[in-house]
Amino acid sequence: MKKDTSTLTKKITGYSSLAASLLAISNLASAQIVYTDVNPDVTDSGNGAAYDLDLNNDATVDFRISITSNGAAAKLAAEAIGDNAIAGTYSDPYIYPSALAPGDMIGESKTWNSNIGGMTMASSGYFQGAYGEWFGATDKYLGLRIKVGTNEHYGWVRMDVTTDGKTFTIKDYAFESTPAVSIAAGDAGSIGITPVNANGYKIYAFNKQVTIELKNNLPGDITITNLMGQAVKQVQINSSAMSIDLSDLSEAVYLVTIRQDGNVFTQKIVR
Questions:
Q1: Number of compact structural domains in the chain
Q2: What angle do CA 238, 101, 29 make, to 5 degrees?
Q3: Can you tell me the distance from the alpha carbon of 122 to that of 109, in angstroms, rounded to the nearest whole number?
Q4: Which among 200, 249, 192 has a CA at the least distance from the CA of 224?
Q5: How many Cβ atoms sit within 10 Å of the Cβ of residue 84?
Q6: Which residue, of 184, 208, 243, is where some domain finishes?
Q7: Beta bridge partners of 216
Q8: Last residue in a domain, options 184, 208, 223
Q9: Which residues in the chain show pLDDT less than 50?
Q10: CA–centroid distance for 166 within its chain
Q11: Which residue among 67, 120, 173, 192 is buried most deeply as judged by most CB within 10 Å?
């Protein structure tokens, strides 16, 4: 009896076409977003501590994160060098650098500032009270804008700051190489059906679902957001291997954020 292989052939052809399409999108996205992992992470503290950030790796410092302290008083500041700028929150008469969450969009609509001398991320002891959004921040993002020639590019740097604001950690950063195009906080530019294995997590999207292999089944949650920062799915972690149905979502790019055991990891996928 002759086997009917037409259905199988059609399925294989369909999967191959989808794979080629998604990999093409993946290559395009990777070309647009330039990601740099700071490995190992850089942690610094104390008076005079500073980190010079070259966002587009052109051997020119674009931003400086620094600490000044005097006894119990301390100030963590972010400074934009040259024509670059930092996204902030306006609180009359100052603008404080925003501590952005994964998926927050960084683009023209943000409030941008190029304050010479640095913007206050976390300050205490100099005046009454504490100022800034970065006290105790974990896996938060500083929104950045650099000027290359006449073009503006948006990016981010991921940081931790201790509860007293006196120690910071730089983890990674990225920027959108296409001028004037927004970038989501945490977007590292990897999408598609090829599994992404990072920080012990393996994530891939295929056939209208996303599959996530976790390091363990410790309590936590998985949130899927669109590129406007709106949560469209959220599930509790109950297994070390999770599958989430995406069939009710429109075809688009989404961010998968895993929060588990004190860790936060964000990865982009395509539906």
A1: 2
A2: 90
A3: 24
A4: 249
A5: 23
A6: 184
A7: none
A8: 184
A9: 1-31, 191-196
A10: 23
A11: 173
